[in-house]
Amino acid sequence: MRSINLEFKQKQSLNLSLKLWLPLLQLPLQELSTHLETLSYENPFLEVKRPYEHTMGASSHGMVEELVLSHESLHEKILEQIVPPLFPTPVSQKVAHEILCDINEEGYFDGDIEQIAITCNVYIDYVERIRQRFSKIEPYGVGALDAHESFVFQLDAMSDEVDDELYHLVLKMIEQMHKVDKFSKHHRFEEARAVLKKFSNPPALEYQATPKQIIPDFYVEVDEDIRLRINNEYYPDIVIQEPFSSKNDSIKDKLKEARDIVNLLELRKSTLYKIVLLIVEKQLSFFVGGELRPLNMSHLADELSFAESTISRAISNKYVESKQGIFPLKSFFTNAVATKELSSSEIKNFINQQIEYENKEEPLTDDDLLERIEKRFNIKMVRRTITKYRKLMNVASSKERKKIYKVQA
Questions:
Q1: Which of 44, 104, 171, 314 has the highest local Cβ count within 10 Å?
Q2: Going by C-beta distance under 8 Å and a sequence separation of 6 or more, which residues neighbour residue 293?
Q3: Where does the chain hold its CATH 1.10.10 domain(s)?
Q4: How much is the pTM?
C-alpha cells in the first residue's frame, strides 16, 4: 500500500511540474512576470520581482519605455478556451495548442496545417476540422486564414442574433466585399451593413490597443565565433520565502511548488538557449548575410532529443536580435523545395525580386514565375505552389497588380 501511495505522489508531482512547465516554456518574455505573479497569489512562499523598474529606457537595444501587462493577453484568452466540450479529447487539445502557436498578433492563423498534422501524428483533415472549431472561440474570428474567413467566423458567432435572410445577405456581402454596393437596393441592406460594422478587423484588434515593442529573448553576434546572449534584463527575479518549521503536508507541497518554479524558470532559459544556438548554427549563412537554408523542427528535435511539440512551444512568440534585425524564431524554419539544398525562403525571395522589376504594363503571371524559377534553379515545380507562395507573401495576382500599377501611374 505504501509503494502505491508513493507512486501516486510521484505521478501527482510530475503532473504538477508539467502543468507549471509548459506555460513557462511557451509564454512570450513580456508575459512571464504576469504569469508568475498569478501563481504567487496562490503560493505564500513565492515572491516575484518585476525587472522593468530598474531597466526602463536604459537599454541600447530600443527596449520599451512602458509595459502594460495587467490585461489578459490574446494567448491566455484563447488558451483558457481549449477545453471540453469544444476540444473534448487530449488529441484535439494537442492539435488546438499547436494551432495556437501559429496564431499571430492580429489573430490570424499563419502556420502550416501539414506540419501540425505531422507533429501531432494525425490527418491533415483532422487539423483543419480542429482549426474550424476556433470559430467558436473568443475573440470571434481568431484562427481564420484571412479577413474574409474571419468575417465568416464572426458572422457564425452571431447566428443566434440574426435571422436566416439577414445571415445569407451578410454572407453574400462578405464574399463580394469589393463590390458590396451592388446590394444597396436590398430592403435589408442597412441592417446587413450594421452587422458588418460590428466585426473586428483584424479579429484580435482589442488586444492591440496598447502597441508593444517586440522584446528579443536573445542577442546574436556572429563574426569568427557565435556569441549568444540571453536577455536576462527582462526576466523576473523569484524569491523563496522560507517558512517556519512545519509538518503540514499542504505547506510542504506549496514550498516544493515554489522551488519547482525557480528550477523550471532556469530550465526555460537553458532549453531556449540550446534551441536558439542550434538554430543559429544551422542558419549560419543567414547571420553572415546569406539566405536561409532548409530547416524543420524534426531536425532540432532529433539533435536535442526533444519532442517536436516541445520545439514548437519553445519557439512560439520568441524573438532573436542580430545585426540584420529582430526576427521571430519560427521564421528560421523553412521547408525544402524539390531538393534538400533549396529552401522555400530562397524561392520566395526570387519571386519578390522578379515582381519588383517586372513590366508594369504586363505583370508576370504565376506561369511566367514558374518558368523563371525552373530555369533559375533547375528544378521542377507546379504552378499551384507558386500561387501558394505568392499568397503567403501577400502579393496580388498579375491582373490585380496591373490594376494597382494603373492607379499608381
A1: 314
A2: 282, 283, 285, 286, 334, 341, 343
A3: 336-408
A4: 0.52
